[in-house]
Write a structure and sequence with these properties.
With 656 residues, the protein is an all-alpha fold. It has 24 helices and 2 strands. Strands 1-2 form a two-stranded antiparallel ribbon.
């Protein structure tokens, strides 16, 4: 089956070549979408076939002995390959319609297509890597190409600022990973993942390695307080890249944490509890910050932080199970985390790509300037609503099913452990339920403000292309499928989680719920809703009239709720934490003419931690005349010194 993967990767590279050579740009874009979609479909088929029947010899290129040890086809790598290809195909389909608005900048579009191709290729090879150096090469390629993809509209100041924050922060993460892998190499004498094994008997090296590895991967994943780069990067990126950033690139951090659990186990109890605490903090404040946003893409970015927190909660539960070798808790925790990782990639791609359709039509990301879209594109609104219900964790969609496993993990650990654990798990349960409530409030806000009421930004026509409907429809179908019938993917997850179960029999998904009974209930709900919709649409002799305006005639958009007013009461509870600031201009004349209200939510990590440290470092650097030179020759000298420093450190590490 290796030929499928080789063919798929080759087509991805060919797509990048076509993006550069084919003229005109309209033709190049059409060919690019077709070739890339074919390549990703081959790789998706490769992942599915190998996940259903895990290979006895987990080698990617058995015909090439030199390369075979560098890549590995275990269940974890193949599962993340499945996530990457499942999210990438709809993103590629949406590329055609989204980039049409930039075709007047042909060179920038071609550069974006090449960088996007290399991002897709590097992420797939990254998760299959079995060699630390190979992993870091593809990690750096993925990071660099994503940075170049952010620069489609590099002339805008916000693009320059956001891309710099992304570039600097993710390279600090890479620096942490260098230390992590060097420590693993020093203990094992090998660079192969399959040879890495670090236990608490190794002493302080175990804790130092885990610290640097977790920080490096947590920055990429977007855990708080390492999350500050993520809203900047997501909001400025071309929307198809935003979807891939959220669905896949931040998930490489989650993949890295799963690999850490394989390398460094079992973990002490306090580390598992610490991961639970950090994750719950990320989930609560991620969704709360989202509720305070007006920029649709920044709002979705903070929801990525929320869902990373939910995934981290599952990982924390799995760590507790691994500490005490409790198989049900390992399955519920790690299985729930893996399932939610897949689900988040699907429904967040749906929401980001949907926001791209809105931006292409309205040319704004500000929710306050939207409204009335349901009148122009009801089917599009319906698809976006499916993603909103899924991310809110409501039945009968896939987001509920993965959170259900994590809730079961809370109950399971409370019944297994004594002492303070039942109270601790009660707090986690209430916290996760609170997250779900805030998520529901947030997506009620954006669906009502964006889609209902009168138009706030006049537009001639709201256009949704066939490819847009295809990509959004595929994602919505998966949300429905794995909400109604999750058994398909839960069987795969069972085989993946077996890696972490110390050779014991893998706990199967059928142990924890009567899935067929749940499927029957959810299918009945969907059938009932569909029947009511069909009956409503097919009714004859309907009288259509404007909604009653409580006696007011000639309503305008100024009489409607805004996003700020909708969430004001909830956000007012945590004004200091959200750094929520508002400016109000009150009319001063007898007959009011103009009044203004503006609110803005800061970020405690960026405003209270990152900016003060950055300002202090810049101040110290600029105070030294040699370091404050702007001549390009000095920049070249600084880079040369940095390379010499890293090279010298590697040599000393190896031979001393």
């Amino acid at each position: 089956m290796d030929h499928l993967f080789i063919l798929g990767c080759s087509l991805i590279l060919i797509g990048a070549v076509f993006a550069v050579l084919v003229k005109p740009i309209q033709l190049a874009l059409r060919i690019y979408v077709g070739v890339m979609s074919a390549g990703l479909l081959f790789n998706l088929a490769f992942a599915l076939v190998n996940l259903v029947h895990l290979p006895a010899t987990p080698l990617l290129f058995p015909a090439f002995p030199v390369l075979s040890s560098f890549f590995r086809l275990d269940g974890l790598a193949l599962f993340f390959l499945l996530i990457i290809t499942s999210a990438a195909i709809p993103a590629i389909l949406s590329t055609h319609s989204y980039l049409n608005q930039y075709l007047h900048k042909a060179a920038a579009v071609r550069a974006f297509l090449v960088s996007f191709s290399l991002v897709l290729l590097s992420t797939q090879l990254l998760v299959l890597a079995n060699h630390a150096i190979v992993f870091l090469i593809f990690w750096e390629l993925m990071t660099l190409m994503a940075y170049l993809g952010l620069l489609l509209e590099k002339e805008k100041p916000e693009i320059q600022k956001g891309s710099f924050i992304y570039f600097a922060t993710t390279h600090f993460a890479t620096f942490c990973l260098y230390i992590f892998f060097f420590l693993l190499h020093s203990q094992s004498g090998s660079w192969l993942f399959s040879d890495f094994q670090l236990t608490q008997t190794s002493g302080m090296v175990f804790y130092v390695a885990f610290f640097f590895g977790f920080v490096g991967f947590a920055i990429k994943a977007g855990f708080m307080p390492f999350h500050f780069w993520l809203p900047h990067a997501h909001s400025i990126a071309p929307t198809v890249l935003s979807a891939f950033l959220s669905a896949v690139i931040i998930k490489t951090g989650i993949y890295g944490i799963f690999r850490m659990l394989e390398f460094c186990s079992p973990l002490p109890l306090w580390i598992g509890a610490g991961i639970l605490a950090i994750s719950l903090f990320s989930a609560i404040f991620g969704v709360w910050y989202a509720l305070a946003q007006h920029d649709i893409k920044k709002l979705l970015a903070y929801h990525s932080i929320e869902n990373i927190g939910i995934i981290g909660i599952g990982i924390g539960l799995g760590c507790l199970g691994m500490t005490y070798s409790i198989q049900p808790l390992i399955w519920l925790g790690l299985g729930g985390a893996l399932f939610h990782t897949f689900n988040h990639a699907i429904f967040k791609s749906l929401l980001f790509l949907g926001s791209g359709v809105i931006y292409s039509n309205l040319h704004t990301r500000n929710i306050e300037l939207m409204g009335g879209i349901v009148k122009s594109a009801p089917w599009f609104v319906g698809l976006f609503l499916i993603g909103s219900v899924a991310i809110s964790g409501l039945p009968p969609l896939n987001g509920f099913m993965s959170e259900f496993l994590i809730y079961r993990g809370f109950f399971e650990s409370a019944s297994i452990f004594g002492g303070y654990f039942p109270f601790f798990m009660l707090l986690m349960t209430v916290g996760l339920a609170f997250v779900g409530g805030l998520a529901l409030a947030c997506f009620t806000k954006i669906n009502s403000i964006m889609f209902l009421g009168n138009e706030r930004s006049p537009h001639l026509k709201f256009t949704v292309t066939g490819l847009d409907y295809l990509s959004l429809g595929l994602l919505a179908f998966v949300c429905l499928l794995f909400g109604i019938y999750p058994q398909i993917i839960l069987g795969i997850i069972s085989s993946v989680v077996a890696i972490f179960q110390s050779g014991e029999s893998a706990q199967t998904f059928s142990t924890f719920a009567q899935w067929n009974f749940i499927t029957g209930i959810f299918a009945a709900i969907i059938l009932l809703i569909s029947t009511l919709i069909i009956w409503k649409v097919s009714r004859t002799n309907q009288r259509k009239s404007a909604a009653w305006g409580c006696g007011y005639a000639g309503q305008t958009s100024r009489m409607q709720y805004t996003a700020s007013s909708y969430a004001d009461d909830i956000n007012g509870i945590a004004v200091s934490v959200l750094h929520l600031k508002s400016k109000v201009k009150i009319p001063e004349t007898i007959f009011p003419v103009t009044s203004r209200f503006h609110s803005h939510a800061g970020d405690f990590s960026e405003d209270g931690l990152v900016k003060p440290i950055y300002s202090w470092i810049i101040g110290k650097i600029t105070s030294v005349d040699f370091l404050s030179r702007t001549d390009i020759r000095f920049y070249i000298l600084f880079m040369l010194l940095t390379v010499l420093f890293y090279g010298g450190t590697a040599i000393l590490w190896t031979y001393l």
